[in-house]
Design a protein that fits this description.
2 copies of one chain form a homodimer. Chain A is an alpha/beta fold. The first copy, chain A, has 3 domains: 267 residues, Rossmann fold, CATH 3.40.50; 147 residues, Up-down Bundle (Four Helix Bundle (Hemerythrin (Met), subunit A)); 54 residues, no CATH class. In chain A, 45% of the residues lie in helices and 15% in strands. Chain A has 16 helices and 16 strands. Chain A has a 5-stranded antiparallel sheet with strand order 5-6-7-9-8. In chain A, strands 4-3-10-11 form a 4-stranded parallel sheet, with helices on both faces. In chain A, strand 15 and strand 16 form a beta hairpin. In chain A, helix 7 crosses helix 8 and helix 12 packs antiparallel against helix 13. Chain A is globular, with a radius of gyration of 28 Å. At the A-B interface, strand 3, helix 3, helix 4, strand 8 and helix 15 of A face strand 3, helix 3, helix 4, strand 8 and helix 15 of B.
Chain lengths: 485, 485
């Protein structure tokens, strides 16, 4: 297993040659969604980026175990006490797991629309409470956490004696001291930078479990430490997530792992960049919080039209995962055209025929394609190279260039394979609808010609046959239209 | 909330009027799949039956919380010791949760093909270990279980002093004593009828957790007691499952709930019957273990053709859920025809036009439809009544019967709504393909007519236009055929 892949490691702030710990195995952990609301288009970008990374690693021949968690421990509160008393039955009360189910199903449906592969494992926070409690016990035992009023806090100062809390995000403790504004439970902490790894539940808190310290729930950062270690080992290859997770989430993960398992967990940290809309940060409060569903239906004031899932995926892949990406109608419409052009290339490339010799250097073209992806998964450059391939297709079609049988076969398999398997782009099956419409327009034209030559029996027979096939024909002053019955 | 629904309760062995504990709420728990292999077509039947029940309850206006668990605690063993030592990394070893993920995704995809609604909650066994350990502690505390060599066994004799172990399945302890052939761990049990609620793990067992008795795993029956109670309350309305689960699984569930929570958990026990193939029990070992995927592709020696998911669903609904159902090609082919006839009815009913008066009694027709479903969800009778509806459609179309505007509107909404919402049947979108084929046959006929009258320019123009639309035309001695390019 030899590749020339290089990745940008957030921890070292450098490009590094990708050398997995136990090749050909690769362990990759990505922080997944919190399933208490509809997934945000920014999340979709993050998961699409890691889908590209997962696909490329598989394409290179690595045996990848891709773990993406589901955060299902939520902080829903029950209704007020009076209301609660009036409700006798369990069924009358809100059940967090019902919310979890709705948005988990929705998340899976959404990612399937965007043609993302399922991860190898999708562990849930509620599925790993015993392991989380055990990790807390280890951290306490090591002197890196303390109990306070039923909650347990990670002791950042104790940890910082020998470790660099802030190594990933570049923050330092003094700065954190000034910037920490979290007041809830602040009195229980020895230091404002300390963070909860177990929280005692308030009475109205619904999701809670018995643990040695209280009836409570684990701190959010904990689940990722536990689940990545359980499924990938104490040190694994890639940890990914949106860059808003660098601090505090990922910083805390490193600290928990080092304090509890005694090991630096991650070799390569990969972070995806943020989305904007019309140049502004996406936020529900500002009216720019567009959901994937709204993008697909076009049902949002900022959208001038609907965009297909593959158009959106293609649009996302046209930016590098570490660049910010601005959603706007002009750029999305350009992507729609570009995507169609690329898919036409996929159709056309199969129709090409070979000549005795080649006038194009396909080996070089292919090498450039892989060079782009080997450069930290640079999909925009790879896509540009694929458009160069579309140009080749058209030149060959027009007889201006030609390929030998072996070059043509290499070109076809690389071009199509890369678009389908690595970029995860697929035809959107408009084929049939397009064909129905094409056939209908043609038949209506034949009917018009019959009417023009006053062959009304043919014109009527066409109308009747179409009616039997489920089409309603309407002759208006602007011509003839049809609808499906 | 008033309905006239009656259900057959396995516990009382009688039809009973359905009266939920806290109307309009209904709590329903169904034992879900074990996700260590592809789901069996018999499981699909069970889940399709409960999908029908869920849909009908929703249709009647009940607020249903439908819980269907996923058994993800498996008994995979690790490789032999030598092999294990040679593998240094976590990633090189088999990971049960990777198997779980594959078959969970597959299960969801399959149920979606059969148009089953997602349950309200799909809890996992691994997600409820703390709750399971707590229930074991309660059962031990009550004197209904004992520890033995790190495992914990339910004490059937102690329980039977005041309770009737066997009330659901109709078995008695003496019989159980004679019939119990389970040897594993038998020495640890006080009585052969006792069953494990916690098992100490052998060293090669992969999935195991720390509990007060040992590093081990919960007995299989336990998860359903815990998860039904957690999400539906200590006593809830409906518990369902395949009838092979009556004993020991459901019998043990009742015993665990009564011993641990002090309550009889379930008001109505509903059990689905088994499938056969060509009159024989389905079993992998006998070559009759057909998977849903094989039914859909037709790729099994016993299948003479492929069957669409809706054909299979319709076929299943044509039998009552408490009847055995025999899969065979003749019956499936008949169902395929019947399903198409029903869907043609759905199309045609919308085309009917009203008259001033009615010659058919639609109120009676509708009442009969609901009477069928109110009789323990008798879908075969309901389907027969819908075919009576198809007969009405055709009579009205032929002008032999007629409906007033209000009767027609009632007939249309009941007929269509029942098929879509209650039976969960939908058109399989062959519409387009059928339409493409219909249009193509028509155009090819026009082209033949042109050729016959020696109008070759029209014939050629048709061929060229079709080619542009992606069709390849072939003139052979048996006529003209086309393929999609």
């Amino acid at each position: 297993m030899e590749s020339n892949l290089h990745v940008y490691n957030t921890l070292s702030r450098e490009m590094e040659k990708f050398e997995p710990i136990n090749p050909p195995f690769v362990g990759m952990y990505v922080c997944g969604p919190t399933v208490y609301s509809e997934v945000h288009i920014g999340n979709v970008r993050t998961f699409t980026s890691f889908d590209l990374i997962y696909r490329y690693l598989l394409h290179l021949g690595y045996k990848v175990r891709y773990v993406r968690n589901i955060t299902d421990v939520g902080h829903l509160l029950d209704d007020s006490e009076e209301d609660k008393i009036s409700k006798k039955a369990r069924l009358e009360n809100i059940e967090p797991m019902e919310v979890v189910q709705r948005y988990t199903v929705d998340f899976h449906d959404t990612m399937k629309l965007f043609n993302a592969l399922s991860p190898s494992i999708e562990p849930t926070a509620t599925g790993h409470l015993i392991e989380q409690i055990e990790l807390i016990e280890e951290i306490v035992k090591g002197g890196f956490a303390y109990e306070s009023n039923g909650s347990v806090y990670f002791d950042v100062q104790a940890y910082s004696k020998n470790e660099n809390y802030g190594e990933l995000s570049g923050r330092n403790i003094d700065e954190l001291l000034v910037n920490t504004r979290e007041l809830d439970g602040q009195d229980d902490k020895r230091h404002p930078a300390d963070f909860a790894i177990w929280k005692k539940a308030e009475p109205q808190h619904i999701m809670k479990w018995h643990a040695p310290w209280s009836l409570g729930f684990p701190g959010w950062h904990l689940e990722c430490s536990v689940m990545s270690t359980k499924y990938l080992g104490a040190t694994f290859d890639i940890h990914g997530g949106g860059m808003d997770l660098k601090f505090p989430h990922h910083e805390c993960e490193i600290a928990q792992n080092k304090a509890g398992y005694g090991q630096d967990p991650v070799k390569y940290w990969l972070h995806t960049n943020m989305l904007t809309f019309n140049g502004r940060k996406m936020a529900k409060s500002e009216g720019t919080g567009v959901t994937p569903r709204q993008m697909i239906t076009g049902d949002h004031p900022l959208l001038t039209q609907a965009y297909s899932p593959m158009t959106i995926r293609f649009f996302m892949l046209q930016a590098h995962y570490r660049s910010t990406l601005d959603f706007n109608n002009e750029a999305l419409q350009a992507a729609e055209k570009g995507f169609k052009r690329l898919m036409r290339g996929v159709e056309d490339v199969q129709q090409l025929t070979a000549e005795p010799t080649s006038s194009l250097n396909i080996d070089q073209w292919k090498a450039d394609l892989y060079t782009a992806m080997d450069d930290d998964f640079n999909s925009p450059i790879a896509i540009a190279q694929l458009f160069e391939g579309v140009r080749y297709v058209n030149l060959i079609k027009d007889g201006k260039e030609h390929l030998s049988a072996s070059d043509l076969s290499l070109f076809q398999s690389t071009f199509t394979g890369f678009i389908h398997d690595v970029l995860g782009l697929k035809s959107e099956d408009e084929g049939d609808d397009g064909q129905v419409d094409g056939l209908m327009q043609f038949i209506l034209q034949l009917r018009n010609e019959a009417k023009e030559r006053k062959d009304y029996s043919t014109a009527d027979s066409i109308r009747n046959t179409l009616q039997e096939l489920g089409f309603v024909i309407k002759d208006g002053k602007d011509g003839t239209t049809y609808t499906k019955a």
